[in-house]
Design goal:
Rossmann fold, globular, 173 residues
């Protein structure tokens, strides 16, 4: 059976470049105070300090570039990004990732549960954005739920699970 992401009719290169809506990033930034965007380009960066595709974020050390990282990774390679985040968290970096809600995929078992300090499930689908005429435009039809994965300690322990309502996030700003 095909996953929800595989059922999407949007070309992969477009899906992997969608950006986080400003209201959602602002909510997370107020909680975690980010100083680096770990998977960005000049058009969709959320921090002045960012790592772009050319620098190859999966191949370089993050913790030498910032202390608190934001990451909305390409969803086509979520497992690689979760693995990298866990590696960097063990070096002491705080990392918050916006990823598809786990649905039994092995990389969540391997790099999230028991390793991340917290998983925050977002109740309500997120409309990601794409640049249009210099302004972000909402992309409709997200086929999966989303969550924040928070890595905020060096050693594996219990992973806290919580929820937040999408409309509450929007209304709290």
């Amino acid at each position: 059976m095909a996953s929800q992401q595989q059922l999407s009719k949007t070309p992969l290169n477009k899906r992997d470049s969608w950006q986080t809506p400003g209201w959602l990033y602002s909510w997370a930034d107020k909680r975690y105070n980010f100083d680096i965007d770990l998977a960005a380009d000049s058009a969709n960066k959320k921090c002045q300090n960012y790592i772009d595709k050319e620098a190859n974020s999966l191949e370089i050390s993050w913790n030498q570039r910032g202390a608190s990282g934001w990451c909305n990774p390409p969803y086509s390679r979520t497992g690689d990004w979760l693995s990298k985040a866990w590696q960097e968290a063990q070096k002491g970096m705080k990392i918050v990732m916006l990823v598809p809600t786990p649905n039994g995929e092995n990389h969540y078992r391997d790099y999230v549960f028991g390793k991340a300090s917290e998983v925050i499930f977002i109740n309500g689908r997120i409309n990601f954005e794409t640049p249009a005429d210099g302004k972000p435009k909402a992309v409709k039809g997200n086929t999966r739920g989303s969550c924040f994965i928070v890595y905020n300690r060096k050693y594996p322990e219990h992973t806290s699970l919580s929820t937040v309502d999408r409309d509450h996030i929007r209304g709290s700003l």
